[in-house]
Amino acid sequence: MSEAIATSQTILVVGGGISGMTAALEAAEVGKPVILVEKSPSLGGRVSQLHRYFPKLCVPSCGIEINLRRLKANPRVRVLTLTEVVGIEGGPGDYRVRLRTRPRYVTEDCTACGACAEVVEAEFEDEFQLGLGRRKGAYLPHPMAFPQRYVIDPRILGSEDAERAKAACRYGAIDLDMRESEATVNVGAIIWATGWRPYDADRIQPYGHDRYADVVTNMEFERMADPMGPTGGRIQRPSTGEPPRRIAFIQCAGSRDVNHLKHCSRICCMATLKQTHYVREALGEDVEMDIYYIDIRAIDRLDDFHRAVRRDPKIRFIKSKVANITRGDDGRVVLHGVDTEGYRRYAEPYDLVVLATGMEPAVKASELPVAVAGNEHGFIERDPANGAIFAAGCAEDALDVNRAAQSATAAALRAIQVVNRAAGTEG
Predict the structure, then answer these.
(1) 3 within a domain of the structure (yes/no)
(2) Are residues 139 and 238 in the same domain?
(3) Could you list the residue range(s) of the whole structural domain that residue 39 is in?
(4) Cis check: omega of the bond before 41, within 30 degrees of 0
(5) Dihedral through CA 420, CA 421, CA 424, CA 426, nearest 10?
(6) What is the pLDDT of residue 2?
(7) What percent of the chain has pLDDT over 90?
(8) Chain-wide mean pLDDT for the chain?
(9) Are residues 53 and 130 in the same domain?
């Protein structure tokens, strides 16, 4: 293990998504040294997988690019990718944190030219595309990846593919002898911003996500609609590749359900309303869409967005919790349930079904390498017993992008107060 680095004035931010980047920048731009660690090969987190934000429908790359520019320009932020926290000791103003970094097998000499990927033959499921596409064994995680450096998948080590990749690099940037390393850092405060993961739709057995190709999740639909996604932005039936003419969106798929996620994830209603715009833009005015919902939770200015969708004559809002999904004789998927406003039983066929699955913390409070207070949903609660470990973004609660950034700013301010007190600059 390497010698300890950093000081009690340093703030450690765990997680390189929008919340982690926001917290790191807020702290660094008031003069605090920051270490930002991310377990994947690049920053960006879940937001980088979205096609657009609501309600303005702008592309997330805009916000991410601004943050990346700020990070690149700020020498106070040290970014460590492929790195995880494996141990925490100490207390406020004096934490000793053990970090473990996995090898990228590519050095900082990489220019992201892509020559290594061109000669590698092995392919694997693409994590960024949620398994909907495939990538090479030498790959750039995504177009906006930071650092803009390729990664060698460890599964090709020792193969001819790995040697071909190394030989193809004109800059000598591929080092197949890289090894996992550990370091201990001393920090004054910790911001935990590990974000969220979509609830596993395969666990909602009546909806058949694991059986029917034409039943997809809202995050899978985001990737489908993105021009940089696995279908090049074509919204299509996965089973046939044809454009769907009738689409169903099912709200609260697994959410507000004692058998799955008890809480409301707050983003699902707006995500669906946003995705109806994707359909209109990509497939025109003839596509019919039905939204099955318990209630629509669109507050503040977002209600205007909701009302605009309701004015579309070919979008129906059906107040019902879908009971189950089957496959019809014509190959389409069929939704079964009861319309609770008219108490009408239905068996409606669709070309494509989108499940608005909720969010759960990517790392639950009970899974942290140190004891912190957590609620029944796994989110980290604010509690004096946590010391100077502060949750940010969706590690703290189910939040949309705007509120996650606000949460991150608040966490940064709390961390700054702790390190200021440790330095005696605040009473």
Answers:
(1) no
(2) no
(3) 11-102+180-195+362-423
(4) no
(5) 80
(6) 43
(7) 87
(8) 94
(9) no
Residue 415 structure tokens: 């961390």
Exposed, middle or buried: residue 3 (CB in 10 Å: 0-12, 13-18, 19+)? Answer: exposed
Three-point CA angle 70, 142, 158, nearest 5°: 120
| Rounded Cα gap, residues 257 and 398, in angstroms | 15
SS3 367: helix
Domain assignment of residue 110, yes or no? no
For residue 57, the model assigns a pLDDT of 85
Burial label for 359, CB within 10 Å (0-12, 13-18, 19+), is: buried
In a domain, 308, yes or no: yes
Total count of domains within the chain: 3
**DSSP secondary structure code for residue 382 in this structure:** P
CA–CA separation, 134 and 157 (whole Å): 19
- Taking the C-alpha atoms of residue 97 and residue 105, their distance in angstroms, rounded to an integer, is 24
Task: Give the pLDDT band of residue 427 (cuts 50, 70, 90).
Answer: very low
Name the burial class of residue 69, with classes exposed (0-12), middle (13-18) and buried (19+) by CB atoms within 10 angstroms of its CB. exposed
Same domain, 266 and 317: yes
* Cross-strand partners of 81: 38
- Tens of pLDDT, residues 53-96: 887 788 887 788 899 999 999 999 999 999 999 999 999 999 99
pLDDT per residue as tens digits for the range 242-258: 999 999 999 999 999 99
| 3-state secondary structure (DSSP) of residue 336 | strand
306 and 287 share one domain: yes
Q: Which helix (H) or strand (E) holds 96?
A: strand 94-101
- Please list, residue by residue across 287-299, b when 16 or more beta carbons sit within 10 angstroms of its beta carbon and e when fewer do: bbbbbbbeebbbe
By the 10 Å C-beta count (0-12 exposed, 13-18 middle, 19+ buried), 191 is classed as buried
**Residue 387 and residue 238 share a domain:** no
pLDDT at 302 over 80: no
Same domain, 289 and 377: no
